[in-house]
Amino acid sequence: MKSRLNWQFLILSALAVLFVSCSKPAPQQQARMEKVEEFRNGLNVDQVKQLASSRVEAKMKVGPQFDEDARAAELIYDRYRLKMEDFPKAPKELEQLKDEFRAFLDLETEAKFPTAKLEDFRRKAVTAYPLFEVGSQITVKTRRGSVTGIVRAVEFDRIKVDAQLILFRDMLSPTDQDFDEQFIERRRQHFLDRQFNTPRSQFRSDLMARRVGGAFAKDFFVRVNNRWIRADRLQETIFKAELAKMRHKFDAEMRGKYRAEVTAQLREEGFID
Q: How many Å apart are CA 72 and CA 231, to the nearest integer?
């Protein structure tokens, strides 16, 4: 019985030695475990995160930065085909450009429709639409014939030519409207508009429509939401939100890259498993 117990003791002792030798880590693994143990004894989880964050932020400061000016220039070229490297050193303000363009339109319009011709058309309008009043020489055609003479009086329903009274309702030409100053003025104005003012205005409008885009683009102005904006101000207005999204995306990509690098460094240094 005693002999049997001795054998059991020897077997258990051998197994214990074998277990200890098998569970003992390799020297490199042992060093890593000691380093991790030392780290874990010195820092808590929050401190580990703080260390990682500080390294990421350090990389963000020294790494490539988002070039907002360059991205804005790309957006401006893509949308308006304006190269910001050609932007004038002394750019014009909007009011100055408007004044210059108005002067150009005035010059071209005056060359095509000289204002001096307006007087000729006024004389033609007076000839085409005469106003008859007291003292006018007139020939009145009536149902009974015609009367020629000087208008001596104009009343509500009749006129007096020399000594003869003629009712408006009996007149074929001229009519009672030809004695109405306001009516005649409207007809003359209509004549002027049709012959001179409207064509002149239409010429100016057409010229402006054809030339305004190119004229303003030459000085780096673009039309946005019915208003003119100089190209160098698009960055802080029209493209502000889009550039902010681009910056956010760029920073997120760089931060993700640096986090991966820092994680690998901390693992290599034995700070994390």
A: 10
Q: Alpha carbon of 71 to those of 207, 235, 246, 251, 267: distances in Å?
A: 35, 9, 8, 14, 37
How many CA atoms within 13 Å lie on the side-chain side of 78? 7
- State phi, psi for 163 to the nearest 5 degrees: -100, 0
Spatial separation of the C-alpha atoms in residues 140 and 154, rounded to whole Å: 13
pLDDT for 29 equals 55
What is the per-residue pLDDT across 217-246, written as a single tens digit (0 to 9) for each?
Answer: 999 999 999 999 999 999 999 999 999 999
Nearest-angstrom CA–CA distance, 81 and 204: 27
pTM over 0.85, yes/no: no
Within 13 A of 172's CA, how many CA atoms are on the CB side? Answer: 8
Contact between residue 190 and residue 158 where contact means Cβ atoms under 8 Å apart = no
* 43: pLDDT strictly greater than 70: no
The phi, psi pair for 13, rounded to 5°, reads -65, -40
Q: What is the 3-state secondary structure (H, E, C) of 76-109?
A: HHHHHCCCHHHCCCCCCCHHHHHHHHHHHHHHHH
The whole-number pLDDT of residue 273 equals 73
Residues contacting 270, CB < 8 A, separation 6+: 32, 35, 36, 39
Is the Cβ–Cβ distance between 140 and 151 less than 8 Å?
no
Instruction: Say what the pLDDT of residue 47 is.
Output: 82
> Would the pLDDT of 41 be above 50?
no
The tokens of 117 are what?
């011709």
Q: What is the pLDDT of residues 98-121, one digit of tens each?
A: 999 999 999 999 999 999 999 999
CATH 2.60.40 fits 133-173, yes or no: no
**Tokens matching residue 114:** 């000289």
Domain residue spans in the chain?
133-173
